[in-house]
Amino acid sequence: MATATLTPAQVRRRSLQSGTIGAIVEWYEYTVYGIAAALVFGHLFFPQLSPGVGQIVSLASFGVGFLARPIGAFVAGHLGDRVGRKSTLILTFSIMTVATAAIGLLPTYDQIGVAAPLLLCLLRLAQGFAVGGEWGGAAIVAVENAPRGRRGYFGSWPQIGVSAGLLLGTAAVAFSSWISGDAFDNWGWRLPFLLSILLASVGFIIRLRATESPAFLAQKALMDEENEQRKAPATILFQHHRRPLLVAVFARFAEAGNYYLFTTFILSYVTTDLGVPKSHGLIASMIGAASNIIMIPVFGALSDRIGRVRTFLLGGTLIVLTVWPVFALVGTGQLWGIVVGMVIFLALGHALVYAPLPALYCEMFPTQVRYSGISIGYQAASVFLASFTPALAGALVIWADGSLWMVILFAIVTTLVAMVAVSFAPDRRDRDLDDLDDLDGAAAGKESSAASGSTTTDH
C-alpha cells in the first residue's frame, strides 16, 4: 500500500508498531548483556581477578555502554532532526543487532586472553551508541503521530519496550540455561545473543513499513522553502532550550539508576550475596517485567487525564515510600519476597514515572530540535546514573558490610531530585504540537533579543 493512500489511523498504527517493536528488540539485546554480565561474564572474561572484584568489573562493563549513549544521542539527534526519524531508527537498529550477534560469537579470556574483555567492551560501546539514538526516535514517532489528548497513551507504548525486552531477554537466558544445563557457562549463554538475529528480522520489516513523521515532514518542507542556512539542531538546542533540556536530564533520576538496581544489581545480589538459586532472580525479573508492561499504558493514559507532572510525582512518591520495604522483601531470599518486591517497584513506582516521559519530553521541545533534545536529555542522565549504578550498588553493599541501607538512600535521594525537576515542567497536553513550535520560536526570539542587550537571560 502506498504511503499516500494510508489513512491517518493506519499511519498512527504503523508508527506505533515501529516505535514499540523496535524498542522491544533493541532492549531485548541490551537486557541479554546485562543478565550475562550479572551471571557469567565475570569468570568468562575477567577470570584473572578475584571472584568479588571480577563480578564488580563485569557489572562495570555493563556500564561502559552508557558512555557511548550521549554520542549516539548527538549523532542520531542530528540525523533525526535533519534527515528523518525513520531512517535514523533503521540505522540505530542495524548497529545494535550486529554488535549483539558479535558478542554471541566472541571468544572468552581462556581462548584469546586480554583481547576478549577488550572486544567485549568495544561491542558494548556499539550497543550503547545504538541505544543512545533509539529511545528518542521511538518516542517521537509514537507521540508525533498521536491525536491530541492521547499523546500520553501513544507515547507510553514504546516505553514497554524496555520491560518487554527485559521479559524476553530474561526468558531467553532462562530457556538457554535449561537446555544447556551445566554447559551454560561454556556455550549456553551465547544462544540469547544469537537469537537476536531472528528477532531483528521482524523489527526490520516493521520499521521499513512505517512512514515518516508528518510533523517532521512539515518542518523540513518549511525549511527547504525558506532555503535558509540552518544551524545544527544541537546548537539551537543549547542556545535556546537549556531549561527544558535540564528538566529532561534530571527527570530521569527517578527511574534511570533505580531500574537497573532492580533488573541487574538484584540478580547479582540475590545470587552472590544471598546465595539463592539464579532462577529466583530470573523468575522475579520476568514477573516484574510483565507487570510493568501491563501498567505502563494504563499510566500513560492517566497522564492524559491528570497531566504528566502529576502522574510523575505520584510515582516518585511511591518509590520513596516503598524502596525500603521492597529491599526488605528481596533481602528475605525467598522467591515470593523477591517477586513481590520486583512487582511493587516495576508495576507501580517505576511505571508511573516512566510512562509519561515521552509525551512530557515531546511537549517541551519544538519539532526542529525534538529528536536532539529528547535523545541528549534522556541519555545524559543514563551516563550520570544508569551506567555504573549496578557496580556502584555492589560496592556500597561491600562498604556497608553487607547492608543495603546505602543503596536505599541512593534510590531515595535520586528520586527526590527528579521530582523537583519535573515540578518545573510545563503542562502542554492540551496544545497541538504545531502550536508548541510557534510557542518555542517566540521564546527563542525573545532570548536572542535579550542576549543582544547588556544582560543575558538563560532559557
Per-chain topology:
Layout: H1 8-39, H2 41-45, H3 51-82, H4 85-104, H5 109-112, H6 115-144, H7 151-180, H8 184-188, H9 190-209, H10 214-226, H11 233-240, H12 242-251, H13 256-273, H14 278-306, H15 308-331, H16 335-354, H17 357-362, H18 367-386, H19 389-399, H20 405-422, H21 433-452
Helix pairs in contact: 1-3, 1-4, 1-6, 1-7, 1-9, 1-13, 3-4, 3-6, 3-18, 3-19, 4-6, 4-9, 6-7, 6-18, 7-9, 7-14, 11-18, 12-18, 12-20, 13-14, 13-18, 13-19, 14-15, 14-16, 15-16, 15-20
Task: Write up this protein.
- The protein has 459 residues and is mainly α.
- It has one domain: Growth Hormone, Chain: A.
- It contains 21 helices and no strands.
- The protein has helices spanning 8-39, 41-45, 51-82, 85-104, 109-112, 115-144, 151-180, 184-188, 190-209, 214-226, 233-240, 242-251, 256-273, 278-306, 308-331, 335-354, 357-362, 367-386, 389-399, 405-422, 433-452.
- α11 (233-240) packs across α18 (367-386).
- The longest helix is centred in the first third of the chain and has 32 residues, at 8-39.
- The protein is globular and about 60 Å long.
- Residues 441-459 have low confidence and may be disordered.
